[in-house]
Amino acid sequence: MATIKYDFSVESLGECKVKSPIELSLEHGAFRAAYVKDTSFVRNRVNVFNKDELETDPKSTYLEKAGPREFIYFNPTHVTAGICTCGGLCPGLNDVIRAVVRCLWNRYGVRRIKGIQYGYQGFFAENNYDTIDLNPDNVDNIHKLGGTFLGTSRGGGDRTGDIVDSIERLGINMMFIIGGDGTQRGALDIANEIEKRGLKIAVVGIPKTVDNDLQFLDRSFGFETAVQKATQAVNSIHMEAKAQIGGIGLVKLMGRESGFIAAATALASHETNFCLIPEVPFELDGPNGLLHHLEDRLKRRGHAVIIVAEGAGQELLQSTNQTDASGNKKLADIGTFLRDSINSYFKKKKVEINLKYIDPGYEVRASVTTANDSIYCERLGNNAVHAAMAGKTKIVIGLVHDKYVHIPIAMATLTRNIVDPESSFWRDCLDATLQPLYMVNNINTVIDKLKAEHEEANNKALARLDKVNAMKKKTK
Questions:
Q1: Which of 311, 340, 427, 474 has its CA 20 to 30 A from that of 17?
Q2: Phi, psi dihedrals of residue 451, rounded to the nearest 5°
Q3: C-alpha distances out from residue 334 to 164, 179, 323, 357, 442, Å
Q4: Which residues, 6 or more positions from 366, have their beta carbon under 8 angstroms from its beta carbon?
């Protein structure tokens, strides 16, 4: 299998000659906040499996640290900034909008900040959506609300030319795009079109994915809030299950391709007996299937709690063969399928059960952030502004090894972050639930399937990397 060679080199619009209006220290040890230099980096690989690899990583495999620079590319008085939010709702969108606006206004003195309504759809003239003039006064309290102050939508990112035309008409020279994997791929296409036209416009992404499935990041904003809200739902369903004869609590959580929310919730709740995620196949029937183990659990303890991620067990259902406006595959409903399958199984056996099923997905997505998530959003927004003012472009801001860094969009979107079945995280989840390592009847078949899926994902990432490298050569 070919190895993916990541290149974290950050592109810039040009030399930074403008003295930053932010007064900070030029050196450490002055007991005041300091500027960040372009020579400050964070290692991507901190786990060393071969000591000979320690000093062989080229500089391009290091991540550039985020933060305010002493000299910046844009004169703040010449800046017109744009902000848009795309894709599904996620806790923290308003916190990020607020942070970007306040940093632009209060720290750099930027007075022209335009909010684009309803995601990429807000750029298209036929939709007739006005921009919103943003300032500290009208965003000051939006972090206390769920949803997004600017509105959102799916799709439209493929109309690159129309979007750049609109950016030009609005006089925007600094664009902040808040969205997930597909949105950021669209942002990269926008930035490439901008470069092709010879325009000096910075494009900086703030990655939004409640599923925590963006590569390299310690976590994505909204994820912690989602786990907090999901844990409350699991705790409630546990009370229901424990109070009933043959009580079963079934909770479906978000997680299309990555089971981070489900696994983290299982760990946080301490009440989950089965956690089903997309990365680990399971079967219903047979001596090592879910239903047999669930029956055994009820015999031993009298009740059970099951968490299932929305993308888990899709091979057990009939595919819809449809996609949404963002290009995501529409999933069959694993929650109702499990509910009906469990009820049918125990009915045939004439065993009394009381199954309660909940899907708190939309409630979770629209939640106000936890305190720690709000802090994260604030710092992401601030660092996005510092990056754009320094002329950085085609990047997203992320937290890697507890440091804020610039990640080229092309690298961040090569492949999705997923729960590794061999990781300590999943091992700890198994310890918390005490479920079997695999709930399948032929382990070799499953291992072969997982290897094939891993190979396919790797090949897709390599194909995207080839496309990125070809684009770089073309623009040069």
A1: 474
A2: -65, -40
A3: 40, 26, 17, 12, 22
A4: 89, 91, 146, 147
- pLDDT at residue 364 is higher than 60: yes
CA distance linking residue 256 with residue 28, whole number of Å: 44
189 is catalytic: no
Residue 214: HSE in the Cβ half-sphere, 13 Å Cα cutoff: 32
Residue 236's Cβ-count burial label (10 Å; 0-12, 13-18, 19+) is middle
* CB burial readout 350-379, b (16+ within 10 A) else e: eeebebbbbbbbeebbebbbbeebbebbbb
pLDDT score recorded for residue 464 = 79
At 35-62, the pLDDT tens digits run 999 989 888 876 655 655 555 667 778 8
In the 8-state DSSP scheme, what is residue 315?
Answer: G
Q: 101 in the Ramachandran plot: left (φ > 0), alpha (ψ -120 to 50) or beta?
A: alpha
Query: What value does the mean pLDDT take over residues 207-211?
Result: 89
Q: How confident is the model at residue 451 (pLDDT cuts 50, 70, 90)?
A: confident
Q: What is the CA radius of gyration of the chain?
A: 24
Residues in the chain: 476
Check whether 292 has a pLDDT greater than 60.
yes
DSSP β-ladder status, 113-115 and 132-133: antiparallel
Q: Tell me what pLDDT residue 53 has.
A: 57
Structure tokens belonging to residue 65: 């640290």
C-alpha span between 175 and 187 (Å, rounded): 9
Going by their DSSP bridges, the two strands 403-408 and 395-400 should be labelled as antiparallel
For residue 232, give the nearest of 253, 205, 213, 218 by alpha carbon.
253
The string of DSSP codes covering 41-61 is EEES----SSGGGTTT--GGG
Tokens representing 319? 């595919």
CB 173 within 8 A of CB 74: yes
pLDDT digits (tens, 9 = 90+) for 215-241: 899 989 999 999 999 999 999 999 999
Closest CA relative to residue 373, chosen from 24, 103, 95, 84? 95
The 10s digit of each residue's pLDDT in 130-158 is 999 999 999 999 999 999 999 999 889 89
Indicate yes or no: pTM above 0.85. Answer: yes
DSSP assignment letter at 368: P
Q: What is the spatial distance between Cα 131 and Cα 268, in angstroms, rounded to a whole number? A: 41
pLDDT at 57: 66
Nearby residues of 200 by Cβ (< 8 Å), 6 or more positions away = 13, 14, 173
Q: What is the pLDDT of residue 327?
A: 61
Active-site option among 95, 181, 189, 211? 211
